Amino acid sequence: MGILAKIGKWAIITILYFNSILNAQDLDDLNFGTDETFEVMTWNIEWFPKNDQITVDYVTQIIQALDIDLLAIQEVDDIDMFDQMLNGLPEYTGYLESAWFAGLAFIYKTDVIEINDIYEIYTTSPYWSAFPRSPMVMDLNFMGENLFIINNHFKCCGDGIMNLDDLGDEETRRYTASNLLKEYIDTNLPNENVIVLGDLNDILTDALENNVFQMIINDSENYLFSDMEIAESSSTDWSYPTWPSHLDHILITNELFDELDNSDIQTIKIDEYLDGGWSEYDQNISDHRPVALKLDFGSSINGDVNQDGDVNILDVVSMVNIVLSGEYNNLADFNNDGAVDVLDIVQLVNLILNQ
User: Fold this and answer.
1) Where in the chain is the domain with CATH 1.10.1330.10?
2) Are the CB atoms for 336 and 344 separated by under 8 Å?
3) Closest Cα to residue 152, out of 176, 169, 168?
4) Does domain 302-355 match CATH 1.10.1330.10?
5) Alpha carbon of 343 to those of 129, 301, 328, 337, 350: distances in Å?
6) What average pLDDT does range 329-333 have in this prediction?
7) Has residue 5 got a pLDDT over 60?
8) Is the pLDDT of residue 232 over 90?
9) Residue 27 in contact with residue 62, Cβ under 8 Å?
10) pLDDT tens for each residue of 189-219
11) Residue 245's beta-bridge partner residues?
12) Location of each CATH 3.60.10.10 domain in the chain
């Protein structure tokens, strides 16, 4: 082998080595929240803490890194360890009081969220079949906006077939729960900014006759599952990989439709930031990935693709990554043609050069 060939070989190895270092990710590299937007996340945390203190340490680090304003949590099992975790999150406080302990909780930033009220609905025995855990409602103010967040954990399991003649059928119970939530919002919160989220334990893409969310989906003038695109796309982005299925959803009412123009909805794939991947995540944290929604109530800057409050070369890098990934992001679609491609990159570069 000639000297030039040897140099070329080692050059390639060196480049690959440093590239692997540059691209290595850990939990501190997780990010989602910004100062200008409202972020809400649903996370079934699988009987927290799944692996005792190890889980507490992981979850504390994850919440700090994601910097999300409000988390709706399902499956808290140990209240003392939940409180211990909150002690390690000085920017946050939590709420998990319930008529009977059902594992539902909120974690929220105290400096940006003002609580008006937190309460449960459908708590009496006629609704126990539909709601084995009563929905928990948070009435809050964020930057002058009033929002109602409804945290849920629907009945699990079933055979995928809805039998409306069997009130104990798991799909029927979820169907009833979905329609009762819609009825509650239509009656009590008809003109409010409402977000319904949680582990709803069913998929959005079932056929009409077996879709437990069909009545909500049909009312497209008033309701929208913000994660529908995730549900309809690759299973690699779904929230419950071991089935695989997408079970954790974020539903919004039409009062928030305009904010979707500058929104971001993601399954947060925390397992990709761990050396042990999914195995490490599943062993120590949860069997569900969280799903998060970012809403902008009018404060975003044109060209700020990464939403850090400035428009610069980092936004070009973010847009290039979006193009390479084949994903879609409203903030990066400069020409509003429904795709993010090189034309959008050119427009962003011109914007930066002309600033």
Assistant:
1) 302-355
2) no
3) 176
4) yes
5) 53, 19, 14, 10, 11
6) 70
7) no
8) yes
9) yes
10) 999 999 999 999 999 999 999 999 999 999 9
11) 240
12) 27-300
